[in-house]
């Protein structure tokens, strides 16, 4: 039986990626043995998302990676939080792909981080 789930995302520049996530307000988690190879971030409760150097990522899957075809959805509590996060994403160098608005019965937006990964931020009613 599964007890936990997390995502691993490859990146080209670990320090630059870490700065991006810090700049948009995410809490960084990193064990000493992960330094220079990976770091993570997570919500107050739940599983972490790990950002992994492409070299380390290659060790896990046995091949080079070039694609970024996963959409990770994260939730926030209010529309105001979503709007603030969208501004932080742009200021940190991310690209808003779908501006904050009501869509499919929820408020949210999507963005692409500096490594090309796609995120969906939602406020569930």
Automatic annotation (TrEMBL):
Q: Which molecular function terms from Gene Ontology are attached?
A: dioxygenase activity
Under the heading Pfam families, the entry gives: Glyoxalase
The organism's place on the tree of life at top rank: Bacteria
List the SUPFAM superfamilies.
Glyoxalase/Bleomycin resistance protein/Dihydroxybiphenyl dioxygenase
Keywords linked to the UniProt accession:
Dioxygenase, Oxidoreductase
InterPro entries for the chain = Glyas_Bleomycin-R_OHBP_Dase, Glyas_Fos-R_dOase_dom, VOC_core
Q: Which protein is depicted? A: Extradiol dioxygenase
- The source organism is Staphylococcus piscifermentans
